[in-house]
Amino acid sequence: MRKWVLWVVLSLVACTAFAATGARARLDAFANGLHSLRGNFSQTVYDAHGNITGSSHGLLALQAPRLFRWQVTDPYQQLIVADGKKVWVYEPDLEQVTVRDQGSEEAHSPLTVLTDLSQLDSEFKTTDAGTRNGLEWLRLVSRSKEPQFEYAEIGFDASGPRRMIFKDTLGNRTEIAFSGWERNPQLTADTFKFTPPKDTDVVGDTNTGH
Fold it and tell me: What angle do CA 89, 11, 40 make, to 5 degrees?
């Protein structure tokens, strides 16, 4: 469950400075001049009855168009790295790495919102969801016949996305707060590379086709 949750979260994350008003206008502005991003996250997961089933904190990094890193640091360790061809999910406590093609995971994914706004309306139905808690909210609903989530909402303030909420098809809800954004930091090449540690089980095909 947490692997799927983290993938969808990563697919929705980005930040920039906004002069526009209205959630959709801010989203339209959000890719302007954005090349890379680094920040912190705090995530809480609720079940369909509103009970907390998990929480985590960590660091994230994103680089257009297809690279990202999501690192959970507390209360457990987990690392997801997308290198442009593969997605690696490393579970240190299990001594296991799961790897899959990045392309197949990106189908009908909100990742297109971050890197290619021209695909936004073809992949999602978007509506302004009003103002709550001082943020302007945009709702995204996938046009896929088999969507991975019921809806996602991104809450913007004047400086960028501050919160995100998404609800999966089983009624579970995830809420994420973002902080400490660094816009267009210089990220080293190894930020988006992953090599399985020695004696770690690898599940999936590591062949890149080259």
Answer: 80
Instruction: Give the pLDDT confidence score for residue 105 in this predicted structure.
Output: 53
The CATH number of whichever domain residue 127 belongs to comes to 2.50.20.10
Q: Note down the domain range covering 164.
A: 2-203
In a domain, 81, yes or no: yes
Using a pLDDT cut of 90, give the percent of the chain over it.
Answer: 39
Domains: count for the chain: 1
Give a yes or no: residue 105 inside a domain.
yes
Summarised one tens digit per residue, pLDDT across range 31-67 is 677 788 888 999 999 999 999 999 999 999 888 777 8
Residue 117 has pLDDT above 80, yes or no: no
Say what the pTM is. Answer: 0.80
